[in-house]
Write a structure and sequence with these properties.
Length: 296
């Protein structure tokens, strides 16, 4: 904003429009792979319980499923363990990622509990999904009975809606403007728009427009803003000049005596790359009219 030709700044806290998104949301899935007793003759062999503790997080422009898978051996027999094969699918059963994991050790003794860490990276496009399903395939062998039992099960369903909603956080936006006018020549407004991205992932400014209009809502001029990437947890700025041109002469005749301010409106969409998640925003700034014969 400008008063008497001096540059001033305006600071805005803007809450984006309706979106479904970024604080980390913890999903705890327990007992998803509990299995009934397996009967062999007169022997009752309990199937170990496999439990998944998983959370989807956003880091470094990637969605990552983090956590661990735990196996609890309720029997008196030691178990030999196979590798763990994990698959991540969306609500349409489309495979998004898979991984092969190792247990902490290849054998779990009687009444023991061991785990395997999970870290599966997905592209940000996974945020467009409603939920993720985690499928596990492994096998274990009862050493006492020389009996191998395969296990194949869906061990977790991660609803992504809460994760998306965490992205609807306020953005800090700084607007700097300066009006340079000369009654005998062209007049321009210099502007600088700086946005601080509070998310850990990139956002892309699209369809940005700067509009100049009077207090009464009469449009003076409008111009498009360039597509600009705002890195995760970083600030970036857009700056330029907008030429008011001959329209300013009309403005002088109608507004000079009233000393009405100009209004600058910045609008656009902040989109998460590779997704359909869009955060519309509108920022209003007021620019006092200051006429100068010298053009300063």
């Amino acid at each position: 904003m400008i008063n008497n030709g001096k540059k001033t700044s305006a600071i805005f806290t803007v809450r984006p429009g309706k979106i479904m998104f970024f604080a980390v949301f913890l999903f705890l899935i327990s007992g998803c792979a509990s299995l009934a007793k397996f009967i062999v003759g007169s022997k009752g062999l309990e199937i170990p319980q496999i439990v998944a503790y998983l959370e989807p997080v956003l880091r470094e422009n990637t969605m990552t499923v983090l956590g661990k898978i735990v196996i609890r051996n309720p029997t008196e027999s030691a178990l030999d363990l196979d590798k763990i094969y994990l698959a991540v699918k969306d609500e349409h059963d489309t495979l998004l990622a898979d991984d092969v994991l190792q247990w902490e050790k290849p054998t779990v003794t009687a009444r023991e509990e061991i785990e395997s860490p999970v870290r599966i990276n997905l592209s940000l496009s996974a945020l467009d999904k409603e939920y993720l399903s985690i499928f596990l395939k492994t096998a274990f062998t009862y050493k006492k009975f020389h009996l191998r039992i395969p296990v194949e099960s869906k061990i977790a369903v991660l609803n992504l809606k809460p994760l998306k909603e965490t992205i609807a956080r306020p953005l800090k936006v700084y607007v700097y403007t300066k009006l340079r006018s000369n009654i005998r020549g062209a007049s321009t407004i210099d502007y600088r728009l700086r946005i601080t991205n509070p998310f850990s992932i990139n956002v892309l400014l699209e369809e940005g427009i700067i509009r100049v209009h009077t207090e009464a809502g009469v449009d003076i001029v409008a111009s498009r803003l360039p597509r600009t990437l705002f890195g995760g947890s970083q600030s970036n700025q857009i700056k330029g000049s907008i030429d008011i041109g001959n329209n300013f002469k009309k403005l002088i005749r109608s507004e000079l005596s009233r000393k009405r301010p100009l209004r600058l409106q910045f609008s656009g969409n902040l989109r998460i790359p590779d997704t359909n998640i869009v955060m519309p925003f509108t920022i209003q700034s007021v620019q006092e009219i200051n006429f100068s014969w010298s053009g300063r």
